[in-house]
Amino acid sequence: MATRTLINLLAVLLLLSLPEVALAADPAVNKQGIDSLNSPSATSSLKGQVLKIEPDALILGTDGGGQVRLKINKDTKMERALKVGDKVEAEVGADHQLVALKSVE
């Protein structure tokens, strides 16, 4: 009977530790438990070609062959007016917000 109780106790302890293991294994979560992919200050750079221009977004064909829709707002910095076919480098913030855009030749 004592062996069965010990096994049950170990099983409960193992189950309680699983969320910690899953959290530690997730590369999107840093050591403070903050989701670094959705951090408002995190930005990344993306190169590609302008495929479509919408009033509040830009569709960019990436160098890898994919497409991404980047949101544009009044704070988006652009060197000049864009046209379809322009090759650009985009600085992208959280939630696909376009922070800055510059032409690339």
Short description:
With 105 residues, the chain is α+β, with helices and mostly antiparallel strands. Helix content is 23%, strand content 33%. It has two domains: 2-37; 40-103, Copper binding periplasmic protein CusF (OB fold (Dihydrolipoamide Acetyltransferase, E2P), Beta Barrel), CATH 2.40.50.
Describe it.
The protein is 23% helix and 33% strand. It has a 6-stranded mixed sheet with strand order 3-2-1-5-6-4, with no helix packed on it. With 105 residues, it is α+β, with helices and mostly antiparallel strands. It has 2 domains: 36 residues; 64 residues, Copper binding periplasmic protein CusF (OB fold (Dihydrolipoamide Acetyltransferase, E2P), Beta Barrel). It contains 1 helix and 6 strands, in the order αββββββ. The N and C termini lie far apart (76 Å).
